[in-house]
Specification:
heterodimer, A: alpha+beta, Uridine Diphospho-n-acetylenolpyruvylglucosamine Reductase, domain 3, 8-stranded antiparallel beta sheet, 5-stranded antiparallel beta sheet, globular, B: 7-stranded parallel beta sheet, 9 helices, 47% helix, 16% strand, binds flavin-adenine dinucleotide, binds NADP nicotinamide-adenine-dinucleotide phosphate
C-alpha cells in the first residue's frame, strides 16, 4: 500500500489542505488504515471530482480508493453488477455496454468512482423517472469506525445515511447495482432552442416530453434583456436496434456512420483568459450553432453523456483561484425564484460558460441526498470574481426562502446554518453518526466547515 | 475551515488589542468567522475588544499571552489549538519603541527587539507546528515596510521587523506543501490612534485598508502583501538606491 503526504483540493481547485494519503489494494489494507487512524480521522476519496472540499480531510488520513478497482461479479441474466468502490463509471459503462447493459443513473462525468457516486448519491438527466443512484443499489459493503465490514441494504437507517452521506458513515468497499438493458450503444437525440427562460421551462414540460427520459438544457447566462435565460434543450432516449444496420445489431458496437459529437461544449482557452467578453462571444456562438429544432440525431452514449470528458480538464481554465460550482434546486411552483436567480446572475455578467438546467422527480430516502422534486441549475463560476462570496450568500437566501437547497456534495462555501436549514435530514444523520461513530472516525473538511 | 474564497471560520489574534488586527477581525466576522481568540496581555482594553467583537456575532474568548515570555508560548497557544482548529493566526503584536530614547537606553531597545523579533519567532514556530498538524490554515505576519531598508528615524524597530520578515519568509518556504500558508504583510505607516495628530506621511494607509488587503491576500493565497499596493513598486526602486542618496531622501 503506498502512502504519501499530499495537498488535496476538489475539482474546483480551491481551499487546499494536506492529508496523509493511503492507497489500499485490499479490503484488509483499507480496514488497517481506518483502525490505525490518528486523532483527525479518516475519509474515503474517489477521483476527487467533487467540486468543493467533500473529499478532503485536513491533517488526517485519506483513503484513495482508486486502487480497489475490481469488478467482482456481472450477472447478465439478472442485470446486476457487484464491484469495488474504486471502479470508475467510465470503465463500468464500457464493460456493460458490450453486453447490452447500462448504468441505471449516469451523471455528467464518467470520471468518478462508484464509491464517490454513491457517497454523493448522484443523479442523471433522467432523474424524474430513474431517481438517484441509491434507488438502484441492492447492497453495500461498508467499512465502519470499528474497522469491521458490514453489509448494508436498502430500507435501513445506515443505508439512508450512507447514500449521499459524503463518506461520513464509513468507507464503501463495494456495491451491488441493478442495471438496465439497452439494445444499442446509441442515443437518439433531439435538440431545440428556447428564446428565453419561460420558453425553456415550457419546452421541458411540454406534452409528450416524457417520451425521452434524458433531458438537460444549457442556459446562456450572459444573454440579457428579453433573451435572459435563453438556452438549448437536449433530450435523448436509448436508440432501438432498428436504427442499426443488420450486421451491427448483435455486436453492440457503434456503427462507423455515427461520429462522436465534436461541436464545442467547452472553451479551449489557456488558463485564466476566459473573461466575460470571451464567454459572451462563445455563448453566442454556442447558441447560434445549435439547431432551432432537430430530432433523431444519433450519438454514441459517450458523446451524449460525457462529451466534456473528452476535452482537456475544464477546471484548469479558471486560473489559480479555481472555480466554484453553484448547484441548487427549487421545487415546482417556485419558478419565480429560478427566474430571479437567473436574472441576478445575468445582470452581474459573470463569465458563466457551464450552466445546466435539469428536472428532478421524487426524492430518495438518503438523509443528505440532494435531489428533491423541482428544477436544478448548476453554474460554474471563477472563484476570483470580486464579490462572488457575498453574491452566492444572497442566492442561498433566495433558494432557502423558496424551500430549495444547495447541493452539499458540490459545495465549497455555504454557511453552516444555511446547510442545516436546507437539509431537514441532518438531525437524524448526526444522531446516527453519534451512535455509530462516537469518536468521529470519519471526518472531512466539508463536515468541519458545515458542522455536519 | 476556510471556504473556497479563503474566508476563515476561526481566528486567533496574537496582540488582541491591535487596531489593525481588530479591523481585520471585524471584516472576517462579516464574512464567515464565528470563533475568535484574542491573545494578549490582560487589560481592560483586551476585554473591551472582546465585547465589541462579540456584539458583532462572534464567539470571542481571550487568553493571556505575553510576547516577552516565550517560555509559556507552547502551553498557552497549545491550549487554544486544543479547543478546535484555527483557520487563521494573525500575528499582530509589536511595539514601535521610541528611537531617540532607545538609542540612549539599550535595554529599551532590546525590548523592542525581543517583542517584535524573538517573541514572534517563538510564537510563530509554535503556531506553525499546530497549523501543520491540522493540515491547513494561514499564519499572517504583520511585518512593516520599515524592515525593508534601514532608516535613520527608526532602525531599531526596522531591524526587528527585518528579522521578523526574513524569519516569516523562510518559514513560508519551509511550510510549502504542508497546506499551511504564511503571509507576510508589509504596511506603510498606518494611521492608528497612536499616530493621530502627526503630519501625514507619504504612502501611509489605514487599519481598514490593511484589513482589506489581508482578506484579499487570504482569498488569493498570497505570500506577500504590501499596503498600499503601490509600495511594492516604490520599495523595489528604493531597495537599490545607493546609501548616500537614500540617507538624503525625506523618508
Ligand atoms: C464535470 C462534472 C460533472 C458532474 N455531473 C454530475 C451530475 O450530473 N450529477 C451528480 O450528481 N453529480 C455530478 N458531479 C459531481 C460528482 O458526480 C460527485 O462529486 C462525485 O461524488 C465525484 O466522485 P469521485 O469518485 O470523484 O468522488 P470524490 O470527489 O473523491 O468524493 C466525493 C464524496 O464521496 C465520498 N466517497 C468517495 N469514495 C467513497 C467511498 N468509497 N466510500 C464512501 N464515501 C466515498 C468522499 O468522501 C466525498 O465525500 C459532477 C462533477 C463534475 C466534475
Ligand atoms: N501602526 C503602524 O504604523 C504599523 C505599520 C507597519 C506595521 N505595523 C505592525 O502591525 C502590527 C499591529 O500594529 P497596530 O498599529 O495595530 O498596533 P497597536 O494597535 O499598537 O497594537 C500593538 C499590539 O501589540 C501588543 N503587544 C505589545 N507588546 C506585547 C507583548 N509583550 N505581549 C503581547 N502583546 C504585546 C499590544 O498589546 P497591549 O494592549 O497589551 O499593549 C497590542 O495589542 C504591529 O506588529 C506593528 O509593528 C504597524
Amino acid at each position: 500500500m503506498s502512502v504519501d503526504t499530499v495537498s488535496l483540493t476538489g475539482w474546483g481547485r480551491t481551499a487546499p489542505t494536506t492529508a496523509v494519503r493511503f492507497r489500499p489494494r485490499t479490503y484488509e489494507e483499507a480496514a488497517a488504515v481506518v483502525r490505525g487512524r490518528g486523532p483527525r480521522g479518516a475519509l474515503a476519496r474517489g477521483l476527487g471530482r467533487a467540486p468543493g472540499d467533500a473529499a478532503q480531510n485536513a491533517g488526517g488520513s485519506v483513503l484513495d480508493m482508486t486502487g480497489l478497482d475490481r469488478v467482482r461479479a456481472l450477472d447478465e441474466e439478472a442485470a446486476t453488477v457487484r464491484c469495488d468502490a474504486g471502479v470508475t463509471l467510465d470503465r463500468l459503462l464500457r464493460i456493460l455496454l458490450s453486453r447490452g447493459l447500462f448504468l441505471p443513473v449516469v451523471p455528467g462525468t464518467g470520471r468518478i468512482t462508484v464509491g464517490g457516486a454513491i457517497g454523493s448519491d448522484v443523479h442523471g438527466q433522467d432523474h424524474p423517472g430513474a431517481g438517484s443512484l441509491a434507488r438502484h443499489v441492492d447492497a453495500l459493503e461498508l467499512l465502519t469506525a470499528d474497522g469491521e465490514v458490514r453489509t448494508v441494504t436498502p430500507g435501513t437507517a445506515l443505508f439512508d445515511a450512507t447514500t449521499g452521506g459524503l463518506g461520513l458513515t464509513g468507507v464503501i468497499l463495494s456495491a451491488a447495482l441493478r442495471l438496465k438493458r439497452v439494445t444499442t450503444p446509441l442515443v437518439s437525440v433531439s435538440t431545440e432552442r428556447a428564446t428565453d427562460l419561460d420558453d425553456l421551462l415550457a419546452r421541458f414540460t411540454a406534452a409528450g416530453s416524457d417520451r425521452s427520459p434524458y433531458a438537460s438544457a444549457w442556459i446562456d447566462l450572459l444573454a440579457r434583456g428579453r433573451a435572459t435565460g435563453r438556452g438549448v434543450l437536449t433530450r435523448g432516449e436509448h436508440a432501438p436496434s432498428s436504427v442499426l444496420p443488420a450486421h451491427a445489431r448483435r455486436t453492440m458496437r457503434a456503427p462507423r456512420t455515427v461520429e462522436p459529437d465534436r461541436r464545442p461544449t467547452g472553451p479551449l482557452l489557456p488558463g485564466g483568459l476566459l473573461g466575460r467578453t470571451a464567454t459572451a462571444l462563445l455563448n453566442e456562438v454556442r447558441y447560434r450553432s445549435a439547431p432551432r429544432a432537430r430530432t433523431g440525431e444519433l450519438r454514441t452514449t459517450a458523446a451524449f453523456f460525457h462529451a466534456s470528458d473528452a476535452l482537456p480538464d475544464a477546471n484548469r481554465l479558471y486560473g489559480r483561484a479555481g472555480l466554484v460550482r453553484y448547484r441548487f434546486t427549487v421545487g415546482y411552483g417556485q419558478e419565480e425564484t429560478l427566474h430571479r436567480v437567473v436574472r441576478r446572475i445575468s445582470a452581474r455578467r459573470c463569465p458563466a460558460f457551464r450552466a445546466e438546467l435539469q428536472r428532478f422527480g421524487a426524492a430518495g430516502a438518503g438523509l443528505l441526498s440532494f435531489p428533491a422534486p423541482g428544477w436544478t441549475l448548476a453554474v460554474d463560476l471563477p472563484a476570483a470574481l470580486p464579490g462572488l462570496a457575498r453574491f452566492l450568500d444572497g442566492l442561498d437566501d433566495e433558494v432557502a426562502a423558496a424551500g430549495g437547497r444547495v447541493c452539499l456534495a458540490q459545495d465549497a462555501r455555504m454557511r453552516p446554518e444555511t446547510a442545516a436549514a436546507m437539509y431537514p435530514g441532518l438531525g437524524a444523520f448526526r444522531e446516527l453518526r453519534a451512535e455509530l461513530d462516537p469518536t468521529g472516525a470519519f471526518r472531512s473538511d466539508l463536515a468541519r466547515r458545515l458542522a455536519l | 475551515m476556510k471556504d473556497a474564497f479563503g474566508a476563515p471560520q476561526s481566528l486567533l489574534v496574537l496582540g488582541g488589542t491591535s487596531e489593525i488586527a481588530l479591523a481585520t477581525a471585524r471584516r472576517l466576522i462579516a464574512l464567515r468567522t464565528r470563533r475568535v481568540w484574542l491573545a494578549g496581555r490582560p487589560s481592560p482594553a483586551l476585554d473591551a475588544a472582546a465585547v465589541e467583537l462579540r456584539d458583532r456575532g462572534a464567539d470571542v474568548r481571550t487568553v493571556a499571552f505575553d510576547a516577552l515570555d516565550p517560555g509559556a508560548h507552547e502551553e498557552v497557544l497549545g491550549k487554544v489549538f486544543a479547543e478546535g482548529d484555527i483557520d487563521v493566526v494573525l500575528m499582530a503584536f509589536g511595539i514601535a519603541g521610541d528611537q531617540a530614547r532607545d538609542e540612549e537606553e539599550p535595554l529599551a531597545a532590546v525590548r523592542v527587539a525581543q517583542t517584535n523579533y524573538t517573541g514572534a519567532v517563538s510564537a510563530g514556530l509554535v503556531c506553525a507546528g499546530a497549523l501543520q498538524a491540522q493540515g491547513h490554515g494561514s499564519l499572517v505576519v504583520l511585518s512593516s515596510v520599515a524592515g525593508e531598508r534601514a532608516r535613520r528615524a527608526d532602525f531599531i524597530y526596522g531591524s526587528s521587523k527585518a528579522g521578523l520578515d526574513t524569519f516569516a519568509q523562510g518559514l513560508g518556504d519551509a511550510l510549502q506543501g504542508t497546506g499551511v500558508q504564511v503571509m507576510v504583510v508589509r504596511p506603510g505607516p498606518v494611521r492608528t490612534r497612536a499616530l493621530a495628530g502627526r503630519p501625514e506621511q507619504p504612502l501611509s494607509t489605514t487599519p481598514e485598508a490593511v484589513a482589506g488587503a489581508i482578506v484579499t491576500g487570504l482569498r488569493r493565497r498570497s505570500e506577500t502583501v504590501w499596503v498600499p499596493g503601490s509600495l511594492r513598486v516604490v520599495m523595489s526602486a528604493l531597495r537599490h538606491a545607493p546609501r548616500p542618496l537614500f540617507r538624503r531622501l525625506p523618508l
